[in-house]
Specification:
Length: 82
């Protein structure tokens, strides 16, 4: 199961959410605080406080462009692995 760490007002997070929606992917959304100093969970998962962060098993990605490229090369529409 994919897990996306994000917050609603983040335009970079929106790019990833839109890609996941376009690909009809199922994922868990973890809303994090807007204040970076309060993102302990994100730091534990990715080693840094920035979002979006996508976790797919052992794969942890923390840049929207890297996340989108990963989704495109790893999955096809509907969530099946490519």
């Amino acid at each position: 199961m994919l897990t996306l760490y994000q917050f609603e007002g983040c335009p970079y997070c929106q790019m990833v959410r839109q890609k996941l929606s376009d690909m009809e992917m199922t994922y868990i959304s973890v809303c994090v605080p807007r204040d970076r100093s309060q993102r302990e969970t994100v730091v534990r998962v990715s080693g840094q406080p920035s979002v979006p962060v996508l976790v797919d098993g052992d794969v942890v990605l923390s840049d929207e462009q890297d996340i989108i490229a990963y989704l495109e090369r790893t999955y096809v529409a509907g969530g099946a692995r490519a």
